[in-house]
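Two quick folds needed for the group meeting slides. Do the first one here.
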Amino acid sequence: MSESIAQRYSRLARERSVERRVDVALRTLDILFSGLFLLLSLPLTLLIATLVLATSGRPLFYRGERVGLGDAEVPDAAARRRGAARTVPRA
């Protein structure tokens, strides 16, 4: 069983600062690499968005509703995809 947030916090508070530095260093690397990936993928993302806009027109994003737990309708925002929209009939 995984530990809860409170248990992890308590364990981290008891650890020596050297051990916690590893967590901070890993988290920093995680954020840096994520940011780098976003910057490097931005030109491709803009190219794809421009192609979709040029071939299909607006909107690039749409709002819809999905059926969630207990048949509750949940608001949803998503990017448009190629192809016809598929709908699943309700029972």
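Then this one, please, same format:
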Amino acid sequence: MRRVTRNYILALIMLPAALFQAVSGFIIWRARHEGDGFRGGGIEELGEEATSLWEKHTLSDVHAWVAVALLVLLIIHIVLNWKWIVYTTKNYFIKR
């Protein structure tokens, strides 16, 4: 697999994970400051099955596991691009 294709696929996997982290982190933060914020905002109208997906502990658990997956992907990304990182850093400081 070409390096460009590999990096593109890795970025496509990391982007939705990072967006999920941002959105779920905001929801969790808002819920902590407003009490039981997961049940507010019309979610209860969807029924008991739908609200169980958005309970505090469920969303917090998913948020934590996506964070672990994102960290693993980030480490893979750094390892795969380590030569470029070193080369670019050296060139940046040598030219200055």
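Slide caption for protein two: The CA atoms of residues 75 and 81 lie 10 Å apart.
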